[in-house]
Amino acid sequence: MYRTKAYSAASDTSPLVFTTVTRRDPTDRDVAIDILFCGICHSDLHSVRNEWSSIMPTTYPIVPGHEIVGRVTRVGSAVSAFKPGDLAAVGCMVDSDRTCPECHAGFEQFCPNATFTYNSPDKHLGGVTYGGYSDSIVVDEHFVLRVPANLEPAGAAPLLCAGITTYSPMRRRGVGKGKKVGVVGLGGLGHMAVKIAHALGAHVVVFTTSPQKKEDALRLGADEVVISRHANEMKKHVWSFDFILDAVSADHDINTYINLLGRDGYITLVGAPEKPFAVAGFGLLFGRRSLSGSLIGGIAETQEMLDFCGAQHITADVEVIPIQKVNEAYERMLKSDVKYRFSIDMASLKSE
Ligand code: NAP
Ligand code: ZN
């Protein structure tokens, strides 16, 4: 075991502050990684503030962070896919049982014994897992991903959650040429969805509450931008979408978007607001539309997404910050003031 530097929160009202946490020494199948960058996902904020207490209560102290890119420093004797010096990435999961039907089908995220990167029982050390707002991490080889060499690490880090979470449902629903696709909320997830849907060849419409994001949305690959508070603009799109991805982090009226779907249209929730939605059934009955959800993606699919982003030269638009600015970044994220993902430069942790 060894100690590594990290930022943690002690309670749902505490700021993130400097600490040290214990990591295990790499076992035969482990890869030890020095973290270069870690993205800030809104899920980190939901978890730090215990906003999902009824589903996934937070154990304190919490070290968040599940958009990790770093350099391999050590590998166990049975590791074949990585060697010291390699660029490597870790997303939202660090382990699963690998024996259950979900694991066999490549859906490790639904394994009943999945270990998430933070706030999950740590079967090696006891307590809970600690995430990527940290100097280093030790992860089973199966859960370590390869980063295409042409992607710069600060912008590649958010692909590990924001990228896969938007890629997976869009691929599943056949987003591509000839499809009209809506993206609700131009935050970290939303802006990745725009880039990926555009690269897949779809006609992309962004719905935003922030009029000042309009030009950025077009630059990121949107074909149209709708200010969702403008009822007249919304009306023009009734009964027209094949697919809508809802990536909003706060309470909002989902029925408005259900009514924009065409026959057999799908709206998929990836946003995870604290409060449950009120859904008007008739919006689904007429047009036999579907409301569904999606949670990150499996490991093989995450690698597929990284390779797709490598081939398409897609990374997140990031504002790189030192870890000392993390609490400020959370406040800005709550105000939708992020262009479009914060990526923490972990070199800043060395001076603590
Ligand atoms: P984010 O960067 O904060 O973006 C959220 C966006 O939602 C904002 O930029 C804003 O976009 C919009 N928004 C915020 N408050 C709103 C309100 N009151 N009404 C309408 N729109 C509002 O967050 P993120 O990191 O992309 O995460 C988004 C959500 O996805 C979070 O709930 C997160 O926990 C969840 N998530 C889920 C998964 C999964 O596997 N399903 C994975 C990662 C994250 P505009 O300014 O454009 O309106
Ligand atoms: Zn996330």
Main attributes of the structure:
352 residues, alpha/beta, 7-stranded mixed beta sheet, 6-stranded parallel beta sheet, 17 strands, globular, binds NADP nicotinamide-adenine-dinucleotide phosphate, binds zinc ion
SSE diagram, text form:
Elements lengths: L1 E7 L8 E7 L6 E11 L1 H7 L19 E8 L11 E4 L2 E3 L5 H4 L10 E2 L19 E5 L4 E2 L6 H4 L5 H11 L7 E5 L3 H12 L3 E6 L5 H7 L3 E4 L3 H5 L5 E6 L8 H4 L2 E9 L11 H5 L4 E4 L5 H14 L5 E5 L3 H9 L6 E5 L7
Parallel strand pairs: 10-11, 10-13, 11-12, 13-14, 14-15, 16-17
Antiparallel strand pairs: 1-2, 3-4, 3-8, 3-17, 4-5, 5-9, 6-7
Bound molecules: NADP nicotinamide-adenine-dinucleotide phosphate (NAP) and zinc ion.
Structure description:
With 352 residues, the chain is α/β, with parallel strands linked by helices. The protein is 23% helix and 26% strand. The chain contains 11 helices and 17 strands. It has helices at 42-48, 101-104, 153-156, 162-172, 188-199, 214-220, 231-235, 255-258, 281-285, 299-312, 326-334; strands at residues 2-8, 17-23, 30-40, 68-75, 87-90, 93-95, 115-116, 136-140, 145-146, 180-184, 203-208, 224-227, 241-246, 261-269, 290-293, 318-322, 341-345. The strands form 4 sheets. Strands 3, 4, 5, 8, 9, 16 and 17 form a 7-stranded mixed beta sheet that branches. Strands 12-11-10-13-14-15 form a 6-stranded parallel beta sheet, with helices on one face. A two-stranded antiparallel sheet has the order 1-2. Strand 1 and strand 2 (17-23) form a beta hairpin. It is globular. The protein starts with a strand and ends in a 7-residue tail after the last strand. The mean pLDDT is 98. The chain binds NADP nicotinamide-adenine-dinucleotide phosphate and zinc ion. NADP nicotinamide-adenine-dinucleotide phosphate binds at residues 41-43, 46, 161-162, 165, 185-190, 208-210, 213, 247-250, 252, 270-273, 294-296, 333, 336, 338.
